[in-house]
């Protein structure tokens, strides 16, 4: 089966600066990847290539079997569920209406556009799946940051994408908000077993327990990529973040604390 994403030997250069160097990655249906790395490692840049927002300078990026550079990027983007935490409709739409704008891929409700009864029913099912049933009529500006984050996942899932991209989705959430978010991502992964996802974070505590694979980025290069339990060792994570770190996994979740300097 064609991989959901295929990245081969990608370089990305901006204003003469190499931002990604020789990065390769293959994501298949049902896999949940995390891109981990320190500030400035290149995570968001890689995610923008995976979401067909930018072309690589060199190398191959195939999204849903389509090679960037040979397809209409705008059309391709409409098949990828992209959760952008900066999304902000200007008009005071209700939560369920914001979820439906995932079908038109617009920030606002498109005038004269009307969803089918089936599409409305899907929106409500996704709202329930993300644990927002009691807030479906609430206006966007009145939602908490955690509720908005989950609503944006429901919105991104409206076109039934095969791929979901999440850029630091738990940033700014309090402990309860983060835990509710992780619980719903977990439920999502079991409810939609063929969905693939790529999540960017620099906090290992924010990794959903269903994370199957990890790519560690350091200075624009891939330090390691593969099954999460193989890649996430204290040594590798210490190298990735240039800091001695002790990593533990309990109940499917990862936690870190400063460790002894290696060799010391
Ligand atoms: N358009 C651009 N022109 C020049 N440099 C850029 C551009 N976009 C990003 N960069 C640089 O590329 C590097 C990687 O940026 P990127 O945002 O991908 O990192 P990141 O790993 O997502 O970081 P963070 O965790 O801080 O969000 C940074 O040093 C950044 O300053």
Automatic annotation (TrEMBL):
The keyword Nucleotide-binding applies. SUPFAM superfamilies: P-loop containing nucleoside triphosphate hydrolases. Keywords: ATP-binding, Nucleotide-binding. Gene3D superfamilies: P-loop containing nucleotide triphosphate hydrolases. It comes from the Bacteria. Residues 5-244 form the ABC transporter domain. GO terms for molecular function: ATP binding; ATP hydrolysis activity. PANTHER family: SKFA PEPTIDE EXPORT ATP-BINDING PROTEIN SKFE (PTHR43158). This is ABC transporter, ATP-binding component.
């Amino acid at each position: 089966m064609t991989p959901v994403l295929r990245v081969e030997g990608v370089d990305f250069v901006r204003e003469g600066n190499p931002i990604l160097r020789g990065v390769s990655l293959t994501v298949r249906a049902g896999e949940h990847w995390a891109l981990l790395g320190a500030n400035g490692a290149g995570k968001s840049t890689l995610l923008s290539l995976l979401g067909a927002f930018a072309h690589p300078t060199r190398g191959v990026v195939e999204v849903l079997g389509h090679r960037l550079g040979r397809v209409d990027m705008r059309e391709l983007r409409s098949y990828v569920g992209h959760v952008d935490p900066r999304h902000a409709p200007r008009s005071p739409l209700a939560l369920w209406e914001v979820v439906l704008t995932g079908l038109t891929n617009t920030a606002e409700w498109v005038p004269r556009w009307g969803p089918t009864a089936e599409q409305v029913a899907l929106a409500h099912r996704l709202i329930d799946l993300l644990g927002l049933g009691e807030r479906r009529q609430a206006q966007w500006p009145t939602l908490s940051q955690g509720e908005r984050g989950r609503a944006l996942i429901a919105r991104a899932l409206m076109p039934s994408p095969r791929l979901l991209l999440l850029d630091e989705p738990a940033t700014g959430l309090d402990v309860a908000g983060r835990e509710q978010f992780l619980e719903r991502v977990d439920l999502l992964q079991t409810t939609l077993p063929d969905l693939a996802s790529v999540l960017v974070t620099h906090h290992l505590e924010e990794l959903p327990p269903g994370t199957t694979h990890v790519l560690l980025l350091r200075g624009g290069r891939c330090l390691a990529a593969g099954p999460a339990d193989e890649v996430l060792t204290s040594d590798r994570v210490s190298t990735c973040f240039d800091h001695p770190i002790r990593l533990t996994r309990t109940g499917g979740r990862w936690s870190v604390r400063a460790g002894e300097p290696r060799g010391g």
